[in-house]
Amino acid sequence: MFRSYSYQMYEMVHAALAPARAVTDTAHFVFRNPWNPLSSTTLGKNISAAAELFERMTRRYGKPTFGLDEIEVDGVAYPVLEDVVWSRPFCNLLHFVRPDFPHAEDQPRLLIVAPMSGHYATLLRGTVEALLPYCDIYITDWTDARLVPLAVGTFDLEDYVDYIRHIYEHLGPGVHTLAVCQPGVPVLAAVSVMEANGDPNFPASMTFMGSPIDTRRSPTEVNKLAERRGVEWFRRNVLHPVPFPYPGLGRQVYPGFLQLSGFMAMNLDRHVNAHLEMFNHLIEGDGDSAEKHRDFYDEYLAVMDMDAAFYMQTIETVFIKHALPKGEMMHRGQRVDPSAIRRVGLMTIEGEKDDIAGVGQSQAAHDLCVNIPEAKKVHYLQLDVGHYGIFNGSRFRNEIVPRMRGFWAMIDGKPAKEIPPAKVKTVKKAPGAAVRKEGKRALEPA
Q1: Is the dihedral of CA 120, 124, 125, 131 positive or negative?
Q2: Is residue 344 part of a domain?
Q3: What tens digit of pLDDT does each residue of 356-412 get?
Q4: How far apart are CA 233 and CA 231, in angstroms?
Q5: Residue at 258 is within a domain
Q6: Residue 10 and residue 364: Cα distance in Å, rounded?
Q7: Residue pLDDT, tens place only, 180-208
Q8: Domain housing 28
Q9: Total domains in the fold of the chain
């Protein structure tokens, strides 16, 4: 009984803290106002910093925007627009349109399949930003399940695979695919089914980054927990009905705040220390360091719910039964057979210190896709990075991106010299300034 109402209790606690947030917000404003003589004192700085931290730790973080509005090449700025080119209840396909961008017609089309694992697609903002000058990018923007009315129906792993197949049909053949973390299994399943059925819209390549293709290899704590608990434990303890007043009222979901709590608990000391450091940065007036903290946690703490059917089927299929590597995964009554893939290139990328998808879990795709020619297979292990560092940060930009670009050029039969030079600058404006274009109708700033 208590478990059934825990989501409602979470909402009630958030609402109950609203007056306290209002008070601390006011205190923060008063004690950082330069006209207040106390703002420059140690007392004023401590009150302002404490008030900001309290407000940030108790607020609800909404869906972020990509905010990638321009690409600057050789001093010339080119606009970037977000266009929704395909839409279903649980996903929008975003296209980053670059009008008049040089070399665009020679660049590869890239589908980035963002993970549906608690965070929004904007978690891959750094990934998109690093690749935007070199690729015509599409990305899956998954919908928060609590916003989807119950009447629409459930969404499970088989639906996910179908969404990927429909997106390939919409984009047509020859698109390159980048699957980050969770989408590895459904993308591999979708391409396997398409190849087995002779679908002409197969992609040019698949790139899997930190994907749990076979979690029996170098199992992490996340993998061990799933096997130790079993399906029924998750069904009893982590699924909750969406409360009022959300559009998805009554839908069974795995709430984003539970997923976030689990991830933060894995590195609790790191998160506590990060907030203590921010407190000190605010007192010391180190605005740049404090802003980096805000940027990271504005994204990290923004979470979404997942439909219970998808979550449970993923836990069972990927983490407990290991159905794909065992050759037992089924899709709509058809066995998923990666050996059917013959015409699609394969690249796998792993991080040496990945504590989510251990070393070897992504590489397992090479052992499953036995009929892809060796000349079209590449594996790369990035040293000294964890899970996040595979698709974000300086090593991703400087070491991983060039290798991916080289792989895509090889698959397309283009020499590296035809790829535009890497000396470009992506300009990221303030969040909220991005304008999303849907069809021919421009929407208001997000």
Answers
A1: negative
A2: yes
A3: 999 999 999 999 999 999 999 999 999 999 999 999 999 999 999 999 999 999 999
A4: 6
A5: no
A6: 40
A7: 999 999 999 999 999 999 999 999 999 99
A8: 1-60
A9: 3
